[in-house]
Each structure stands twice: as structure tokens, then as C-alpha cells.
Specification:
This protein is mostly helical and 75 residues long. 61% of the residues lie in helices and 0% in strands.
């Protein structure tokens, strides 16, 4: 199993919290963002390293700015 990275874990937690606030399933968020549900799951678990385009797509699907979605995600 891949090792979790602190930065990716922080981003994943932000995605999960924002998704839950919007009462979206991973499947619904994936549909809105044009991404695969298993990819969303990997991001939320801190196992995937999404590119900036996918971070922006997730932010838009969650009605957030990219900066808001990345808040507290520090190197």
C-alpha cells in the first residue's frame, strides 16, 4: 500500500470536508468534476497526487476557489 504524504492527506481532508458539507457522494462529485470516483477516493485518502488542473476542477465542482480548497495545505 502506498505511503500517505502529509500534503496530500491535508488536501484530501479538505476535499472530503467540502464534499460532505455539500452533501455530495464521491460519485456525484466525480460526475460534477469530470473525474473518476476511484480517483476522488484516492485523493480523499491522501494516496493520489492530483495535478493543478484536477484540483481546479474539484474546487469548481465544490463551488470553491482553488485557494480555498488548498487552505492549510503547506509544504
Amino acid at each position: 500500500m502506498p505511503k500517505r504524504n502529509g500534503i496530500l492527506a491535508a488536501l484530501g481532508l479538505n476535499v472530503r470536508r467540502a464534499r460532505e458539507r455539500k452533501k455530495l457522494t464521491q460519485e456525484k462529485l466525480a460526475e460534477k468534476a469530470g473525474l473518476d470516483p476511484t480517483y476522488i477516493s484516492g485523493i480523499e485518502r491522501g494516496l493520489r497526487n492530483p495535478g493543478i488542473k484536477n484540483v481546479a476542477r474539484l474546487a469548481k465542482a465544490l463551488d470553491l476557489s482553488t485557494a480555498e480548497l488548498c487552505k492549510g495545505v503547506d509544504a
